[in-house]
Amino acid sequence: MTRAINRDTQLCMSLSARPGNFGTRFQNFLYEALDLNYVYKAFTTRDLAAAIGGIRALGIRGCAISMPFKEACIALVDSIDASASAIASINTIVNNDGHLHAYNTDYIAVRTLIDQHGLGTDMQLALRGSGGMAKAVACAFRDAGFRQGHIVARNEATGRKLAEASGFAWVADMSSLQPDLLINVTPIGMEGGAEKDQLAFGRSVVERARAVFDVVADPPETPLIQLARSLNKKVITGAEVIVLQAVEQFVLYTGVRPDDALIARAAAHALS
Q1: pTM for the whole structure
Q2: What is the C-alpha to C-alpha distance for residues 211 and 232, in angstroms, rounded to an integer?
Q3: Which of 23, 27, 46, 172 is most buried by its number of CB atoms within 10 A?
Q4: Which pairs from 237-240 meet CB under 8 Å and 24+ separation?
Q5: Tens of pLDDT, residues 198-242
Q6: 34-56: per-residue pLDDT in tens?
């Protein structure tokens, strides 16, 4: 039976340059399963300031923020949680009676996955990317105790800035590196993109690594993850990140924390 939408229904949303279906399917599945009077819809925008203003003006309860808006939104909210202020990047806005408070549940999710997968702080990492999500990932590894690593970014300005913020070194390419842990935080391998069939790291680099972490969630099995699995490497997928961060967003919006079994069902539905 489809839930009825009425005047008391609370709207949550997402903003992304390339809206996907995961958040919509995940959040709405949980709303229905828990009989919560919420609905979730994905959007994109060419007027970010107006979109964030609309959250406040229309009483929209919460908004997930994705690439490329994670840093630009900071100036548009009223206050920032420690999870976001430490890395100057947000991915979640909660509207409390017109006051917009921002969080970064990406950071929380990555810290959790580092512990869950038992990644040792002795590993030397190479993180490819220098955007808002890259900042969350790099700082999560920094705060988990990783000290050896490189930010790999063709854009020297953003690459150096992220390297300085996270305590790692910057390089323009992988030519001089042989890292233990490879982390992709670029759109390479993402469905719908021009590089969807490409590897974020070359095969020889993957062969020498001990673990591979690809933040791309659509598809969960990117070319990089497929290659790493075929070589029996430890892998962490973007699907794991997106589920963990989405759960934290759900809790922030609703005040309800689903049990693990229901989260697993919602994730399976959203990723199917």
Answers
A1: 0.88
A2: 9
A3: 27
A4: 238/214, 239/267, 239/271, 240/109, 240/113
A5: 999 999 999 999 999 999 998 999 999 999 999 999 999 999 999
A6: 999 999 999 999 999 999 999 99
What's the CATH architecture for 10-103+240-271?
Answer: 3-Layer(aba) Sandwich (3.40)
* Residue of 101, 76, 72, 111 lying closest to 89 (CA atoms): 72
Q: Are strands 169-171 and 125-128 parallel, antiparallel or unpaired?
A: unpaired
Q: Can 70 be counted among the known catalytic residues? A: yes
SS3 216: coil
Q: What is the pLDDT of residue 2?
A: 63
* Active-site residue, selected from the candidate residues 41, 70, 135, 196: 70
Give me the mean pLDDT over the 171-178 stretch: 93
CATH architecture of 108-236: 3-Layer(aba) Sandwich (3.40)
How many residues in total does the chain contain? 272
Alpha carbon distance 126, 234 (integer Å): 15
Looking at the predicted structure, is the pLDDT value of residue 106 above 90? yes
Q: Give the pLDDT of residue 215.
A: 97
- Distance between terminal CA atoms of the chain? 21
Domains 10-103+240-271 and 108-236 share a fold: yes
Interatomic CA distance for residues 248 and 92, integer angstroms: 9
